[in-house]
Write a structure and sequence with these properties.
This protein has 381 residues and is α/β, with parallel strands linked by helices. Helix content is 40%, strand content 14%. The chain is globular, with a radius of gyration of 21 Å. Bound molecules: pyridoxal-5'-phosphate. Pyridoxal-5'-phosphate binds next to helix 3.
């Protein structure tokens, strides 16, 4: 059996060697509490601040605008609940139908306690029409929350334009930038964003560490109270993971996004080879405005779960949508929002990272071609 071919990097990524090595001392030797005054603790605090500065540099933010959380789900929930709690007289929020569950479930909860939510629809390619957002704005709109890039189809959304619209109406704007960070340049001075979230485990840091950017002057009501993170997020800092995230961000800064062109070429090669070799294929998403690493691709009549399982038997890992949804065996809300013909064309998601090679892609395509043939023949019987 060939070694593992991992093509599900929008679900999570491998911890890089630089991140792993940076973290290790904070898991064994250097375990002081960053809040302690003696140097065994305060030296850890210094490393945490170094990591914060790296993240601030990546976003073109001030270090004081960055707080560490346990994950992007926590960052998203904090941003939304803080917007709600700091605007007690307003009851309306605008979002989209293709957000991640951490946004949608928070909004669902708010609906259950009387808030009104407008979910902006998308077209067949998953695109948003910004004028739909403008039309949805009400006197009592307190927040607009739109993701920067979609985890399933890879679409990149016009958050700069949407954020300016929000600002011109005095409405808070939040963006879930989890899938965008490291893949496209994000400059918080160029977008009118109040809050922005991202996660370590999508950029080769470990699972369980997230970031929330809070623009200076934006009110923040914590989700978890305590004195850490300048009273904005309680809980003893996860020092090892924070320094690991700082190292992952340093790798992005050092590379300056050049790796993404290589990844994009590999993704484009993969799609063109698939189209050349396998008939009746459909690629979802906005082909002109997509993340460089993502391909949502369907094979007419082929059940994506069966396809995924057969590929797994060859040690090849893809997903059938968002990792969080795939356990539910429900159609993906993103594809449903795109009005996709899921009876005929239900996709798998392939998402690449800097660790994927052309050799791996060639093996994958060969296996994919034979597995699709097997499943199509089986479907005819
Ligand atoms: N937002 C998007 C777009 C994601 O893809 C994910 C993870 O899949 C999250 C939020 C949640 O991130 P975390 O796992 O750090 O909570």
């Amino acid at each position: 059996m060939n070694s593992k071919i991992y093509l599900d990097n929008n679900a999570t990524t491998k911890v890089s060697e630089s991140v792993f090595n940076t973290m290790l001392p904070y898991l064994n030797d250097t375990y002081g509490n960053p809040s302690s005054i003696y140097s065994f603790g305060s030296s850890v605090k210094e490393e945490i601040e170094k990591s914060r500065r790296n993240i601030a540099k990546l976003l073109n933010a001030n270090p004081s605008e960055i707080i560490f959380t346990s994950c992007a789900s926590e960052s998203n929930t904090t941003a939304i609940m803080s917007a709600v709690r700091s605007n007690p007289n307003k009851r309306h929020i605008i979002s989209t139908s293709v957000e991640h569950a951490s946004i949608l479930e928070t909004l669902k909860y708010l609906e259950s306690i009387g808030y009104s939510i407008t979910y902006i629809p998308v077209d067949n390619s998953g695109r948003i029409n910004v004028s739909d957002i403008e039309s949805a704005i009400r006197e009592d709109t307190l927040l607009i929350t739109v993701m920067m890039a979609n985890n399933e189809i890879g679409n990149i959304y016009p958050v700069e334009e949407i954020s300016n619209l929000a600002a011109s109406h005095g409405i808070l704007f939040h963006t879930d930038a989890v899938q965008a960070i490291g893949k496209i340049k994000v400059d918080v001075k160029e977008i009118n964003v109040n809050t922005l979230s991202f996660s370590g485990h999508k950029i080769h840091a470990p699972k369980g560490i997230g970031v929330l950017y809070i623009k200076e002057g934006t009110p923040l009501v914590p989700l978890i109270f305590g004195h850490q993170e300048t009273n904005r997020r309680g809980g003893t800092e996860n020092a090892a993971y924070i320094v690991g995230l700082g190292a992952a961000v340093k790798d992005i800064l050092d590379d300056n996004y050049t790796i993404n062109k290589t990844i994009e070429n590999l993704r484009d090669y993969l799609e063109s080879e698939i189209i050349n070799r396998i008939p009746n294929v459909k690629i979802y998403g906005d082909k002109d405005n997509r993340l460089s690493n993502t391909s949502s691709i369907a094979f007419k009549g082929v059940n994506p779960n069966e396809l995924m399982l057969l590929l797994e038997s060859f040690n090849i890992y893809v997903s059938t949508g968002s990792a969080c949804n795939s356990v539910l065996a429900e159609p993906s809300h993103v594809l449903v929002a795109c009005n996709a013909n899921l009876n005929d064309y239900s996709p798998i998601r392939i998402s690449l990272s800097k660790y994927n090679t052309k050799e791996e892609i060639d093996i994958f395509i060969k296996r994919l071609e034979s597995v699709v043939n097997i499943l199509r023949k089986k479907g005819k019987n």
